[in-house]
Amino acid sequence: MAQARRTPPRQHDFVDDNEMAVEETCRQANPCENGGSCTVVDGKVRCECPEGFTGENCAEVDMCVNNACAKNSTCRNGPSGTYVCECKENTVGTYCEFTCPEDQCFGNGVCIMRDDGRIGCNCNPGMTGRRCEKEINECDQKHCQYAVECIDKFDDYECVCEEGWFGKDCDRPCQDVYGSCRTWKREGQCEIPRESTEFFEVNCPVSCEKCIPRNDTNTQFVDRLPAILLPLSWILGVWEAEVKGTV
């Protein structure tokens, strides 16, 4: 008996339902106003606006059609039927109608139109003057509090602090926060002092009496914990042991 011949499956062109819906939107309810043409691009509705109109739905009047912006500048539509002119480099003014002299601004300053209608400069940090021709002396602003000297740098300054003070403005007193500046009164035992104590990322000198070793065998030097562990010394029991002289 002859076998029934199988018919291969019918091939169909696949059409995205969403894209079909978008095309239907263009046909039945054209969202484009003022004679705009509705098109479908990448599955999304787009409006191609006629001359004189702009915006997503061509609902806005294109104010840049007849603009007064100077040549080589760019016109941008603004709110409420206005437009602005974006000037190219070295041109200023409402319509970019003025050209800045080549040597107008020093120190990479930016040429601008001032409120009084004159050409001026926006200076970079550290510079000042009508043409950015002067370097600012930061020391004139008297940042340093307890300092013996202020060193002016470009857009910066350095304070040389008096003894016992530190910080960017020499406004913080040095503190022996780890208790390294301690004179032991008990005979035969003393602490090995550190040369400096770290506090707020700087080293402050320790101005205290140092232990003076004697030539007998009864003198005992006590090594302190690492600085990072000293605030926890009372928990570790080391502080009590040192005070009692048992270390």
TrEMBL record:
Record's protein name: EGF-like domain protein
Pfam families, A to Z: EGF, ShK
Domain of life: Eukaryota
Domain EGF-like: 22-59, 60-97, 98-133, 135-171
CDD domains: EGF_CA
Key words, A-Z: Disulfide bond, EGF-like domain, Repeat
Disulfide bond sites: C49-C58, C87-C96, C123-C132, C161-C170
The keyword Disulfide bond is assigned to this record: yes
Keyword hit for Disulfide bond: yes
Stored SUPFAM superfamilies: EGF/Laminin (SSF57196)
InterPro entries: EGF, EGF-like_Ca-bd_dom, EGF-type_Asp/Asn_hydroxyl_site, EGF_Ca-bd_CS, NOTCH_homolog, ShKT_dom
Molecular function GO labels: calcium ion binding
The organism of origin for this protein: Oesophagostomum dentatum (Nodular worm)
Annotated TM spans: none
Domain ShKT: 174-211
